[in-house]
């Protein structure tokens, strides 16, 4: 008897979970792709590390509905982004525009990679055993390495 009630409870629970799925009416696949691109490009204000498409936060659902409403009203992607940026700040964008204020944000990863590569070059050059050896010491080292290879 307990098993039957458990099954009924699980079925009801799954029905409630299915009711939480959001559906939007789009005119065509182009509009659907545009909506998906916009929700992937914009960040959830609450979650901060998720885009609007992936976030389960209530505000993300509100913003998805707002984007769909603005699209239905005929606004362009730039207008929608500007509207949301005005309300939530530049932080809502995953990729802020490349300008003077964001120059460090865009160049810091490249500078970090170049710095890391420079450190690796310096470290590998310091580890060469031949460096700083006299000619006789190099010959002896070469002989020892040749002996070791046999």
UniProtKB/TrEMBL annotation:
The cross-references to InterPro entries, in alphabetical order and at most eight, read: C-type_cytochrome_biogenesis, CcmH/CycL/Ccl2/NrfF_N, CcmH/CycL/NrfF/Ccl2_sf
Q: Is Metal-binding included in the keywords of this UniProt record? A: yes
Q: Which residues form the CcmH/CycL/Ccl2/NrfF N-terminal domain?
A: 10-144
Enumerate the GO terms in the molecular function aspect: metal ion binding
Give UniProt keywords alphabetically: Cytochrome c-type biogenesis, Heme, Iron, Membrane, Metal-binding, Signal, Transmembrane, Transmembrane helix
Q: Tell me, which GO biological process terms does this entry list?
A: cytochrome complex assembly
Xref: Pfam families: CcmH
GO cellular component annotations of the record:
plasma membrane
Record carries keyword Transmembrane: yes
**Signal sequence span per UniProt?**
1-19
**Sequence intervals crossing the membrane:** 103-123
What function is annotated for this protein? Possible subunit of a heme lyase.
The entry's family comment says: Belongs to the CcmH/CycL/Ccl2/NrfF family.
Q: What is this protein called?
A: Cytochrome c-type biogenesis protein
Species name for this entry?
Pseudomonas oryzihabitans
């Amino acid at each position: 008897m307990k098993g039957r009630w458990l099954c009924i409870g699980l079925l009801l629970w799954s029905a409630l979970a299915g009711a939480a799925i959001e559906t939007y009416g789009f005119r065509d696949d182009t509009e659907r792709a545009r909506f998906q691109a916009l929700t992937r490009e914009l960040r959830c204000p609450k979650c901060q590390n998720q885009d609007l498409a992936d976030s389960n936060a209530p505000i993300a659902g509100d913003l998805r509905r707002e984007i769909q409403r603005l699209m239905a009203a005929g606004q362009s992607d730039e207008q929608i982004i500007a509207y949301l940026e005005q309300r939530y700040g530049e932080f809502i964008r995953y990729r802020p525009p490349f300008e003077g204020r964001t120059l460090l944000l865009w160049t810091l990863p490249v500078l970090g990679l170049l710095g890391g590569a420079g450190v690796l070059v310096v470290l590998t050059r310091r580890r060469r055993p031949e460096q700083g050896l006299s000619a006789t010491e190099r010959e002896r080292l070469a002989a020892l390495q040749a002996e070791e290879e046999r």
